[in-house]
Structure formats: C-alpha cells, structure tokens
Amino acid sequence: MAGIVIREAHFPGRAPIEAYGNGGFRFADMSHRGSLLCLPSGIYGWEPASPPALSVDDFARVLAEAAEIQILLVGTGTDLRPLPAALRTALREVHISADPMSTGAAVRTYNVLLAEDRAVAAALIAVD
C-alpha cells in the first residue's frame, strides 16, 4: 500500500481568480495556498526562491510558453516592486511585455484580459 502522494499543484485550464488573500488564491471552485503562475497551459503552484528579488529562473515555465504569451502581469505582493533588469531582458527577448504591479491589481487586470481572450499570463505572489 502506497502512502500519500504529493503532486505539483496544477489546474489544467485557464480560469479567472475568484479571490486572493490569506496567503493564497481561489479559482475554479478550488483554493491554493501560496503563489501562482497562470499560464496558457494551466494554473500552477509557484514558489519563487526569493519573492522580493525575482530571478529569470523563477520564470522558466513562463519562458517555455513564451510563444503563447504577449502580456505577463507580475503581482509583486502588497507593494509594487520593479522587475530585475536581467528578468526584463529575458522576457523582452521572447517578446513578452511584463507589467509589475501589486498582486491585487494584477488579479483584477488578469481577469479582465482573460475575459477578453487576450494572450495573457500572470505570476502572482500571495499576500496575507
């Protein structure tokens, strides 16, 4: 008999974010504790190595799906933080326009652009 199997958090579809706060998000009648990547291939649990100092490595999955993404909204928590130059360069090289903003603003903007069927993705740092 096998024990509990913990799988990588993944929702295989696109869905608006219904709520955020308390360290997580609600979407598609589910909840997730922690940060999220909302990509064309689905919604993934995401834990950047150091949220205040995001790196190119934190966005490997985004870069892998670059052909399907035009706009990347980066929810940087409760405060707006600029993206590091190396990350901006890596995204620009694959023709992704990155817009950092507070997580709340990123959630609202993501939902609007998703409803408009735009080529949007979001990297959302959880807030309390």
From TrEMBL:
Organism superkingdom: Bacteria
Pfam family, one: DUF498
Listed CDD domains: Mth938-like
InterPro entries (alphabetical): MTH938-like_sf, NDUFAF3/AAMDC
Name of protein: Xcc1710-like domain-containing protein
Source organism of this protein record: Pseudaminobacter soli (ex Li et al. 2025)
Lineage: Bacteria, Pseudomonadati, Pseudomonadota, Alphaproteobacteria, Hyphomicrobiales
